[in-house]
Amino acid sequence: MVNQNGEAITEQNLRGQRTILYFYPRDNTPTCTTQAIDFTGHLTELRAKNIQVLGVNGDSMKKHQNFINKHHIGFDLLVDEDYQLAKELGIYRQKKVFGKESMGIVRTTLLIGPDLTIEKRIDDVKVKNQLEVLFAE
């Protein structure tokens, strides 16, 4: 998988630290923007705990670059244009938005351990309290 700059992000980039890997539907939509800005606002605190943040959706590198620049997002966004990773994890599925059913990414956050195991998974994330829920015992 590549980030917004076309740089490969592999398992090696995840090993040895915890990673918040969050899946969101689209760049530059209100809730997705709020979510990315919220993570950016907590980066200092998260990095102090040796936790990195990576966002994932089906948008292109160019869209990710524009989103990062427009909203000053402080972490990499990964390109999953064919939704391969989202499908493997059961995150790309039938959903209902404003009464209309379609296939897409369902907002989901994973906390991945330094050994690449999924420590926690939150489906249908509520952006307002996403970090509280992620780190609740």
UniProtKB/TrEMBL annotation:
Transmembrane segments: none annotated. The keyword NAD does not apply. Keywords: Antioxidant, Disulfide bond, Oxidoreductase, Peroxidase, Redox-active center. GO terms for cellular component: cytoplasm. CDD domains: PRX_BCP. Residues 1-137 form the Thioredoxin domain. GO terms for molecular function: thioredoxin peroxidase activity. One of its GO terms (biological process) is cellular response to oxidative stress. InterPro entries: AhpC/TSA (IPR000866), Peroxiredoxin_AhpC-typ (IPR024706), Peroxiredoxin_BCP/PrxQ (IPR050924), Thioredoxin-like_sf (IPR036249), Thioredoxin_domain (IPR013766). Its EC number is 1.11.1.24. The active site is at 32 (cysteine sulfenic acid (-soh) intermediate). It catalyses: a hydroperoxide + [thioredoxin]-dithiol = an alcohol + [thioredoxin]-disulfide + H2O. It comes from the Bacteria. It is an enzyme of class 1 (oxidoreductase). The keyword Oxidoreductase applies. Monomer. Belongs to the peroxiredoxin family. BCP/PrxQ subfamily. Thiol-specific peroxidase that catalyzes the reduction of hydrogen peroxide and organic hydroperoxides to water and alcohols, respectively. Plays a role in cell protection against oxidative stress by detoxifying peroxides and as sensor of hydrogen peroxide-mediated signaling events. This is thioredoxin-dependent peroxiredoxin.
